[in-house]
Sequence to fold (206 residues):
Amino acid sequence: MGLFSFGKPSPPKANNKVWKTREECLKGTVRECLLSIRNSEIAIIAFPFEESRQAMETFLNKAPVPFQSIDTYAGKDILSTTDKIFLIDLFPLTNLSSDRKINFFILGRYPYLPEERKSLEHLRIKFPNAVISFCLSLDDTVFKVFGSERLKPLMESLGMKEDEFIEHAMINTSIANGLEKIEQKVVNELKSSSEKGWFERNLIEL
Fold:
């Protein structure tokens, strides 16, 4: 199916925010986090790949924006403050808890749905009231599957500025359909530290 194919998909479990470029995605994700902090909410950026984490840490250090990296052994009370952005690896998730509202911003999609579903389910069980958003850009390798060349003209026709993102149910549906197609093609998944590396190891034809 194309990016705006119509059908009767199941409701998306998380929204996809799509920026034009990788740089604008980094900036936009941080802006979304700062809005959460202003509302006294906890902002967490989660990373499916080490490469995306390094890119965000480099960006935050240059900004500069206060942030704290959380490792697997972080204590449960580490989320007691809302004056900084927290960074966490999507795999494995840490043993966190908080009574405050939490906004998770996942930088990129993990291309293999079974693994991504495990993490999302863990988040929903542990933080049932959390808001989960995927922060993406048309520069992401995964968009080769979804046809980013169709989305760019749409974003331009809408008069979108470079720092704006598009968010729509049809985009959620199209991405979900694309990830399902990837899942069908992968027999034995091989891990990688980057999105591009993952595709090179698992779907060479892309």
